[in-house]
Amino acid sequence: MTLTQAEKAAVVTIWAKVATQAEAIGAESLERLFFSYPSTKTYFPHFDLSQGSAHLRSHGSKVLNAIGEAVKYVDDIRGALAKLSELHAYILRVDPVNFKLLSHCILCTVASRYPNDFTPEVHAAWDKFLSNVSSVLTEKYR
Amino acid sequence: MVHWTAEEKQLITSIWAKVNVEECGAEALARLLIVYPWTQRFFDNFGNLSSPTAIIGNPKVRAHGKKVLTSFGEAIKNLDNIKATYSKLSELHCEKLHVDPENFRLLGDILIIVLSAHLTKDFGPACQATWQKLVGVVAHALAYKYH
């Protein structure tokens, strides 16, 4: 599902704001994920998942920064995330169903922090964009 | 029967007290139709759904959104008996409306996003978790009588 020019613009505009709080937004998204979908914690037995933990903040940062790369190279997400795609396929092997769950939690976090910017059009563009990112990350699974 | 802790019940009712059912219902349905355009398939007789602006301003969308969220309120009034509460509605959605239950899950998640945007700091991770459980239970109840 390719993004239209307007959708790409919407993604980039919101990203500019999100990037300023990447660590906090990443950590909160993960917190929401682990609270709402406890099965996702099975991928992090080695983490301290308590609120505000260093693990959550550093991993949240990592996830959001990767999304930032996808935003920067929105016309070639596959190229931008090629290494991450291999990592998820061969090493991490996170079940594909979980990408939708994390995407949803990222949207909740962004909506709650930028309610006025999170218009229906922006919501649709981000849902589509994160769906594309998820597809790229799972496309080498088999 | 679903088990709700006292804390979960409290989170549900306290959040629901802050919800403007007409506004949130209209917004949730509009966003469903905008973010997942294929859901428009159920609303051929709603008139103009040609753009986000048209959808948001469409009076039938607003009215139906309010109806749907008002019905959601029934589940909240009957947390210990949601399946029974939605028994007839479930049959209706299967036999007359022919709605794929996946759509209930989509709408539930959209509602959560709308609540996040409206309630911001009041709708944190613990709150969301309880409401995810609620929308899941509602979706399950609505699909329960499908055959």
Key descriptive features of the protein:
heterodimer, A: 142 residues, mainly alpha, Globin-like, 7 helices, 70% helix, B: 147 residues, 8 helices, globular, oxygen transport (chain A), Hemoglobin_oxygen_transport (chain A), organic acid binding (chain A), Hemoglobin subunit pi (chain A), peroxidase activity (chain A)
Chain-wise SSE layout:
The complex is a heterodimer of chains A (142) and B (147).
Chain A: H1 5-18, H2 22-36, H3 54-72, H4 77-80, H5 82-92, H6 97-113, H7 120-138
Helix pairs in contact in A: 1-7, 2-3, 2-6, 6-7
Chain B: H1 6-17, H2 21-35, H3 52-57, H4 59-77, H5 82-85, H6 87-95, H7 102-119, H8 125-143
Helix pairs in contact in B: 1-8, 2-4, 2-7, 7-8
Protein name (chain A): Hemoglobin subunit pi
Function (chain A): Involved in oxygen transport from the lung to the various peripheral tissues.
Subunit structure (chain A): Heterotetramer of two alpha-D chains and two beta chains.
Number of domains of chain A: 1
Name the largest protein-protein interface in this structure. A-B, 22 and 24 residues
What general form of chain A does the structure show?
globular
Main sheet specs of chain A = none
